TrEMBL record:
SUPFAM superfamilies: Ankyrin repeat. SMART domains: ANK. Pfam families: Ank. InterPro entries: Ankyrin_rpt, Ankyrin_rpt-contain_sf. Signal peptide: none annotated. This is Ankyrin repeat domain-containing protein.
Length: 575
């Protein structure tokens, strides 16, 4: 139970603890069959069972209090706090400070007064400083809540300063290394050190991009004032303005603002009410004002234009423009702009990834399936050299060739991919969410001849990255995302084998992929007798496990010498 770990056990005297320690040491060195009975007898003789029951009840009481952030639980704690203060002197101050912080959060929700939120953060700080060693299993929940409230206050009170820190940490030329303010960093560093931060919480940037959603997932809006605050926050998080201005007037006003930008201000981050702030050219790109983008690229009018300045999400104009191209928005107009921007963008920018979704420009270009664009990006990034083993892209941290294979199989087999990988839900921010959505459209709305053309395009992209990769076996994916993967590693060849993709396997082997390579074990197979069997994770075993019969046939016919080695090999290491 959570609370039990946060307090001393008053039922044990110091002498009893010493006896118990000695008892454990003795039994570590013996094989006594009655150790359980002996331990039970010792506890019966030395421990006050009623006290233990009281502690268990209190543990359950606090667990229930923490089940949900609601006013009823807060009132319940306040009604019993005097009794608990006497009974739990060692840890009571931590819980008292924590619930005092919660009380101030609810005062903010009832009034909208940020001073209450400031007081809440102060009390979270007091609870942390005076009680961090009494938190027990509630430490994760406390740290999450403290971080969420602290970041929320930072964005509500100092949005410009917060966005400035985000922008500075995105720029490698500044000394700012974290977007977190001092108070939040105190909680964050503790949570990171003790592995208490889960999911998106362990990404300092995402704390800001999701700060409003995180806050309202943590606290329920019970009052009318809280509901109004919540609506405004979530509209802001979705980049939706809450004014009654007609849409056409907003567009005209936005275009007018961008057209008034002078050369002296062309590289400034524009003021915004949203979490992400942009330079004028990035702003024009995301709004689809490509005529204004073309205007900004005119050196005679904007000689000072610098395309190497990121927005507060570490997203550069080259990121923005290829993203628009990927969405299919006016591609004939956009591609010349991409080539212009690519030419004057620093090479190092092409190796960056966005803060939030960890997307690199090359990753988006691969998804576009534009062979010419892929070649141009590779030429700019690597010139005549080949892609090195240690270059990775995307939030999944995979090599370009591996990502190109992902695109191929996701585009052409979206539902099989989901079934094979046991994907029940795909997060909005994941690399494959866009591909899955696009694939559904391909399957349901686009004629077969166009889908066949898409398959041909994906093959051309994969072939390009096979040709331009220095070592096709160099990258090994050990991703734990897929339940069937266990601890096995996967090269591009083993991944293609999994999909029974004979032609790609042939191309990879021709480029130097090793058919003999083994990386860990395949997933378990259940034998008729109920035993579990783990086979070496290599090409032949993978063809059998994934029923890749075309690959198996090619392997046995065209690679007889290698196949013969396995036909006569004794598997001594099988479990």
């Amino acid at each position: 139970m959570n609370f039990k770990n946060a307090i001393k056990w008053p039922s044990f005297k110091k002498s009893d603890l010493q006896k118990l320690e000695l008892f454990c040491k003795i039994h570590q060195k013996t094989d006594t069959e009655n150790i359980i009975q002996d331990a039970a007898s010792f506890i019966d003789e030395n421990v006050n069972i009623q006290n233990l029951k009281d502690i268990a009840e209190k543990a359950l009481y606090f667990d229930n209090l923490l089940n949900e952030n609601c006013r009823e639980n807060l009132i319940s704690f306040q009604n019993t706090m005097n009794e608990l203060r006497n009974e739990l002197p060692h840890s009571f101050s931590f819980w008292e400070n924590w619930f005092c912080a919660k009380d101030y959060v609810y005062k903010y929700l009832d009034s909208g007064n940020l001073e209450h939120l400031e007081n809440a953060v102060k009390w979270y700080g007091l609870a942390f400083e005076n009680g961090k060693y009494f938190m027990g299993k509630s430490s994760g929940q406390f740290i999450h809540e403290a971080i969420i409230v602290s970041v929320y206050l930072d964005m509500k009170k100092n949005p410009t300063k917060a966005r400035t820190r985000l922008q500075k940490t995105s720029d490698n030329n500044t000394d700012t290394k974290t977007p977190l303010d001092k108070t939040t960093k105190n909680f964050y560093d503790f949570g990171l050190a003790f592995d208490l931060l889960l999911n998106d919480m362990n990404d300092a940037y995402n704390l800001y991009y999701h700060c409003f959603q995180n806050f309202w997932n943590c606290f329920s809006p019970e009052s009318e004032c809280a509901k109004i605050i919540k609506n405004k926050d979530l509209f802001k998080a979705s980049n939706i303005e809450t004014t009654d201005t007609p849409e056409n007037e907003k567009v005209l006003k936005s275009r007018e603002t961008l057209l008034k930008i002078t050369d002296a201000k062309i590289n400034n981050i524009l003021p915004t009410t949203h979490n992400v702030a942009y330079t004028p050219i990035s702003n024009a790109i995301i709004q689809g004002y490509f005529d204004i983008v073309e205007l900004y690229l005119d050196k005679s009018k904007y000689p000072s234009l610098n395309l190497n300045i990121p927005n507060t999400n570490n997203c550069y104009p080259i990121h923005e423009i290829v993203s628009q191209y990927l969405r299919g928005n006016n591609q004939e107009k956009i591609k010349p702009l991409i080539l212009q921007i690519l030419e004057i963008t620093d090479k190092k920018v092409l190796f960056t990834r966005t803060n939030r979704q960890k997307i690199s420009p090359l990753q988006t270009v691969i998804q576009s399936l534009d062979l010419d664009l892929n070649k141009r990006f590779l030429d700019k990034m690597f010139s005549t050299e080949k892609i090195p083993d240690d270059f990775i892209i995307s939030a999944d941290e995979v090599s370009p060739i591996y990502f190109a294979l992902m695109i191929k199989y996701l585009f052409n087999n979206p539902f099989e991919y989901a079934e094979k990988r046991n994907i029940k839900e795909i997060s909005h921010d994941s690399d494959i969410s866009f591909i899955m959505e696009t694939s559904k459209n391909l399957e349901n709305e686009i004629p077969k001849e166009i889908r066949d053309k898409r398959k041909e395009e994906t093959n051309e992209i994969v072939d390009l990255y096979i040709e331009r990769t220095s070592n096709v076996d160099g990258f090994i994916s050990y991703s734990m995302r897929d339940p069937i993967a266990n601890n096995q590693g996967c090269t591009a060849l083993l991944y293609a084998c999994e999909w029974d993709d004979v032609e790609i396997c042939k191309s990879l082997v021709f480029a130097g992929a090793d058919l003999r390579k083994e990386i860990g074990k395949t997933s378990e197979l259940t034998l008729p007798n109920g035993n579990m069997l783990f086979l070496p994770n290599n090409f032949i075993h993978r063809t059998i496990y994934f029923k890749a019969w075309n690959c198996l046939e090619w392997y046995l016919k065209d690679n007889k010498n290698i196949a013969a080695e396995y036909m006569h090999k004794k598997e001594e290491n099988m479990t």
